[in-house]
Amino acid sequence: MVWSKPSSGGRPLFPTAPTRRQMQREKSEATLSSQADKGPVSARSASLERRRALTTSGKAAVLVQGTTGAGRVRTSQDSRRLIPQQPGWVRRDQSQTVELSGPLNRSTPFSSNRSIANGNHPLTDQVANDHLRAYELEVKGRFERIVPLLQKVSALQHQSDFIDQAQLLARRELGFDLPSHILETAWVRPLDMRALYAWCVFESHRVFSDSFFQNDPLASSSGSEAARSFDHFLLDCGFHLLDVTPCSDGRLAHSIAYALRIPFSSVRRRSHAGAMFDVENTVNRWVKTEHRRYRESTPNAASDDTSYLKVVTYHFSSLDPNHQGCAAHGSDDKLAASAGYQRLLDFRQAVENSFCCGASVDLLLIGLDTDSDAIRVHPPTNDSSTQLDRWVSAQDLYDATLLMPPDQALAQIAEAVETGASGTMSSGMISFLTRLISNNISQIDYVRQLHGGPYPDAGHAERFIGVGIGFKEVHLRNLTYFAHLDTVEEGAADLDVGVKIFKGLNVSRDLPIPVVIRFDYSGAVPGARERAISDCQRVDLAISNRYSKLVRDGLLHTCLTIRDRSQTSPAEVVGSTLDPDLQEAH
Fold first, then answer.
1. Parallel, antiparallel or unpaired: strands 15-16 and 2-3
2. Core vs surface per residue 408-435: b (16+ CB within 10 A) or e
3. Looking at the structure, do residues 295 and 373 belong to the same domain, yes or no?
4. Which pairs count as long-range contacts for 450-455, CB under 8 Å and 24+ apart, including other chains?
5. For the chain, how far is it from start to end, CA to CA, in angstroms?
6. What is the pTM of this model?
7. Cβ partners under 8 Å of residue 95, min gap 6
8. Is 491 found in the same domain as 390?
9. Segments forming the whole domain that contains residue 553
C-alpha cells in the first residue's frame, strides 16, 4: 500500500493502491540499482529497457482483447457504467470566446504533438492524399496563372503583333485562346483587362469542369468502386440517403470529397449561407426519395428499416474565432451550431407533421474548423437529440491515437463516439461517425503536409460565385462561393453575402466579380433544356438589375451554363456578358 500525502504537507492520508506512476518510479529505481550493481550497461540494453517500460505503461500496448475507452481497457466482461466517463476528446463548451490581439502566426502547427511525430497518423491514407493533392494543385494552378498571364498581355498591347503574341501566351500558360473581339479593340482604346480576367476565369472553370465529367479525376462518380462501396456501407449503417448541407462559404466547398472523404456521387449536397437550407425544398426531396423507394425499391425497399440522414455542416475558426467564423452568423460559433440544429429540427417536424410521426428521418450536426479541416461531431441519440455544447473532436482523437496501431485507433474512435452522446446511440450511427472521423484524420494530415500547419488563407479566397442549381464538379476549398437558388429574390441573402465577399476579394483590386450561372436539367423530360436556358437568362437579368452599378462599371460578369444531369457529359455554355455584340442587319 502507498500512504498518500496532501500536496501542501501535513499528515498522511489513508493508504491507497499505488498509482501507475509510483509503480513505474519504483521499478525504475530498482532497475537503476540493479544496473549499478552490474556495472555499466550498453546503449542497446538501456533502449530495450525504456521500450519495455513504455509497453508496460500501456502507451504502446497492443490489445489482444477488449477496447480502450476513457483511458482504460474495456472487455466484454465489464458492465457498462450508467454515466460514462468523458475522455479528453469529448468537449463541453464552458468558456467564453476571447478576443485575440496581435497578428496570428499561421505558420505555427496547430498541435504540439504533431511536431513530435515523424510521419503520418496510422489511419492516414497517403495514396489518397497524394492523388487529391495533385488534383487540387492542377485545378487551382489554372486560376493562379491568370493574373501573371494578363500582366504580360497588358505589357504587349501596343506592339504590332500584339494579338498573335497574346494568343500564344494564353495557349501556353492557360491552354485556351483569349477572346479575339476584345483583343482587336486594343489599338483604339485601352485593353479591357477586367473583361479578359472574367473570360479567363470562366474558361478555366470550363476546362476543369469538362475534365471532371469526362475523366472522373476523383474516382467517385456514380457506379465507381468507391461509390458502390460507400453506398453499401451507408445501407449497412441504416441510412438509405445522405443529404448534406454545408455553408456556402468557399472554405467548405471541399467538405464532402476532402474533409469527410465521401464519394461525391453518394451524397446529395446543397450549400446555403450559414447552412440555412430551405425546409420546404428539402421536404420535397425527401418525398421524392421515399416515392422512389416505394415504386422502384431504390436504393432499397420502402419496407426496409432505414432512415433519411440529414446533415448540417457549420464552420468555425480555431485560430481566429471572432473574425474568421461564419459570416452569415457574425462569426458566432454557438449561433451557427444552434441555428443549424434548429433547421434540422424544423425539417424533421415538417416531415412528421405532413406524413406521420414515425417518418424515417435522422439528424446530424457537424462542425468544421476552416483552419485545419478537423471536424467535430455532435453525437445524436436514437431520437436525434443533440447537445450543442457537447462534441467529439477529431483533432483530439488524432493526438490521442497517434501512437496506436490502426485497429486500436479505430476502436478508440468508436468508443469515443459512443460515450460522446448524451444517451443511447444506434450501432449504425456509431459506425458512420467512426468512419467520418477516421476519414477526417487523413485530411488533417493532408493539410499539414501541404501547408506545414494550418491553411495560410484564413479567410475567403474564392475564384468565382456559382449561382443556380448544379455545380457537382466543384469540390475544392476556396474555389467557389455557392448560392443555390431558383430565383434571385428567394436567394438574395446568399447572393448578397457572396457579392460582399467578392467586393473585398476582387473589386478592391479593380477586378470584376465572375459569376457562373448553372441550371441542371433532365434530358428525359421534353422541353427541359429550353426551360433551363430560360432560367439562366431570367437569373442573369435579375442579377444585372440587382447589381446594376457593378455591371455598368464592368465589375461583374456572368457566364450562363446548363447541364443534362442524366448524362455524364460536361456543362454547356449558352451565353455570357462577354459575348461579342451582334450587329443589326439593315
1. antiparallel
2. bbbbbbbbbbbbbbeeebbebbbbbbbb
3. yes
4. 450/133, 450/136, 452/107, 452/109, 453/106, 453/107, 453/108, 453/109, 453/110, 454/106, 454/108, 454/109, 454/110, 454/319, 454/371, 454/372, 455/106, 455/370, 455/371, 455/372, 455/373
5. 108
6. 0.80
7. none
8. no
9. 461-576
Tens digit of each residue's pLDDT (9 = 90 or more) over 267-317:
999 999 899 999 999 999 999 999 999 999 999 999 999 999 999 999 999
What is the bridge-based pairing of β-strands 307-316 and 361-369?
Answer: parallel
Q: Is the pLDDT of residue 103 over 50?
A: no
In order of 163, 259, 303, 470, the CA distances from 481 in angstroms are: 33, 17, 39, 13
At 215, the amino acid letter reads N
Catalytic residue among 249, 278, 333, 399: 249
Collapsed DSSP state (helix, strand, coil) of residue 510: coil
Same domain, 303 and 369: yes
Residue 249 annotated in active site: yes
CA angle 438, 345, 443 (to 5 degrees): 20
Q: What confidence tens digit (pLDDT) does each residue in 525-575 have?
A: 999 999 999 999 999 999 999 999 999 999 999 999 999 998 888 999 999
Q: Of 26-30, 65-69, 163-167, 394-398, which gets the smallest average pLDDT?
A: 65-69
Q: 404 and 330 in one domain?
A: yes
| Per-residue pLDDT tens digits for 486-534 | 888 878 888 998 999 999 999 999 999 999 999 999 999 999 999 999 9
**CA-CA distance, 493 to 104, in Å (whole number)?**
31
Instruction: Give the pLDDT of residue 86.
Output: 53
Cβ atoms of 454 and 106 within 8 Å: the answer is: yes
Quote the CA–CA distance of 101 and 310 in Å, as a whole number: 38
Hey, what's the cell of 178? Answer: 483569349
Q: What is the pLDDT of residue 584?
A: 56
Q: How far is Cα 386 from Cα 314, in angstroms, rounded to an integer?
A: 15
Rounded Cα–Cα distance for residues 13 and 265 (Å): 63
Task: For residues 432 and 481, state if they share a domain.
Answer: no
